[in-house]
Design brief:
Layout lengths: L14 H22 L4 H11 L11 H6 L3 H12 L3
Helix pairs in contact: 1-2
């Protein structure tokens, strides 16, 4: 049995980083769908974040369903942290 060595170091699991990766992927998918349909993706996503009105997001490529699964608080947290370089 081949076990991966970690040299006795404690392995860390960072749920925030995993969540941020999922948020980034979802947001990129929504952005791409909006762009492909000819919308200004940034304006549409901001409109959605501020209002939580799903009609700001196209149904194309299931983008509306994707963004509706995102917790807006977590999205705002990730965006602010990213903007501030944290």
């Amino acid at each position: 049995m081949d076990k991966k060595k970690n040299d006795g170091k404690t392995m860390q699991f960072d749920i925030c980083k995993d969540n941020d990766r999922e948020l980034r992927k979802a947001l990129q998918d929504v952005y791409t769908s909006l762009k492909e349909k000819g919308y200004n993706p940034v304006n549409q996503i901001v409109g959605y974040i501020l209002s939580e009105e799903p009609t700001y997001i196209t149904n194309y490529n299931n983008a509306r369903a994707i963004i509706s699964k995102i917790d807006r608080y977590e999205l705002m947290r990730a965006l602010v942290q990213n903007f501030l370089g944290q």
